[in-house]
């Protein structure tokens, strides 16, 4: 059973990944909607958003300003810290471009922040135009 505070969803060719914000993990379901696994049970604090890129699963967590990376078998690989964020608890959602860059909505800084695949800050966009951005596609 999942908590009612679900914050992000992503669908792969074989599974449905759902961020369970309250229980601090990502729930994995098959297309038959049967629960098959959980990611990051003791390491994801307030998972906000999940994406799949090049057969890896990326989970953005709110409290440590990081993206946690898992392989296609749901095994933890590494964490990418994201420096330069205004404050904790301001990240909302993210997407990835074709090059593996992260585009993250930062509602605390009122902009979108772009990081490369290594977590190096590239630029902020929308400064002065966006107010508490949340969703991004």
Question: What layout of secondary structure does this protein have?
Answer:
Layout lengths: L5 E6 L4 E5 L4 E5 L5 E5 L7 E7 L2 E6 L4 E5 L5 E6 L9 E6 L5 E5 L4 E5 L5 E5 L12
Antiparallel strand pairs: 1-2, 2-3, 3-4, 5-6, 6-7, 7-8, 9-10, 10-11, 11-12
Provide key terms for this protein.
137 residues; mainly beta; 4-stranded antiparallel sheet; globular
What do these coordinates show?
The chain is mainly beta. Helices cover 0% and strands 48% of the residues. The chain has strands at 6-11, 16-20, 25-29, 35-39, 47-53, 56-61, 66-70, 76-81, 91-96, 102-106, 111-115, 121-125. β3 and β4 form a beta hairpin. The radius of gyration is 14 Å and the shape is globular. The two termini are 28 Å apart. The relative contact order is 0.13. The model has no long low-confidence stretch (mean pLDDT 84).
Give a quick precis of the structure.
This protein is mainly β. It has strands at 6-11, 16-20, 25-29, 35-39, 47-53, 56-61, 66-70, 76-81, 91-96, 102-106, 111-115, 121-125. A hairpin with a 4-residue loop joins strand 10 (102-106) and strand 11 (111-115).
Structural class: mainly beta
pLDDT < 50 runs, ≥5 residues:
none
Please tell me how large the radius of gyration is. 14 Å
Largest sheet: 4 strands, antiparallel
The proportion of residues forming helix, as a percent range, comes to under 10%
Name the beta content range.
over 45%
Overall form:
globular
Mean of residue pLDDT values? 84
N to C succession of SSEs? EEEEEEEEEEEE
Side-by-side strand order of the widest sheet: 1-2-3-4
Secondary structure: number of strands: 12
As an assembly, this protein is single chain
Terminal CA distance reads 28 Å
Number of helix segments? 0
